[in-house]
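It would be a great kindness if you could assist me with a short task in structural biology. I am sending you one protein, given as its amino acid sequence and as whole-number tokens for its backbone shapes. I would ask you to consider whether the tokens describe a fold that such a sequence might reasonably adopt. The full record is reproduced below for your convenience.
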Amino acid sequence: MDTYAVELNSFCDTVLSKVYDLAGERHIIFSSFNPDICLCLSYKQPSIPILFLTDAGCCEVCDIRASSLQEAIRFARRWNLLGIVAAAEPFVNSPRLIKIVKENGIVCFSYGTLNNDPEMVRRQVKQGIDAVIVDSVLAIRKGLTSGETPTEPVNGENGTNGTLKPDHELKEKLDELTINGGGP
């Protein structure tokens, strides 16, 4: 099988074209594990916020910008990205890392299977995480509001998939970006 690479510039142009054609009045946020995609989108358009996705050092990667939580924070700050979306493991194991991300002036989201456990989400929420990406918003919300672990599956089978809880501060920041038409 031949190896090939998608030319980033062309790829980003295609994505932007489709988003501009189809987004309508919806709020859009771009996110990517590829730092070069984040940069390309940032250069090409100032109005849609961008989040850098990172494994936060949980998996070995070749690109130093994605090699650790510290490097992801540096990258996001240096290029005026809205923030990072990191694997939940570092935040669950050391919740103070959430404050470190936020002290750097960027938003902090997490993703991963640990976010299917309400207690793990609760730890992150207590430290001020802006949002958690979960498989079952309904099950996690129920677990957070009742203080009990839900009895229904939290793997997306019996609930709505998506992101739980963007807080008011994040909403204001996103509204400001929309009004100003630029990045943070």
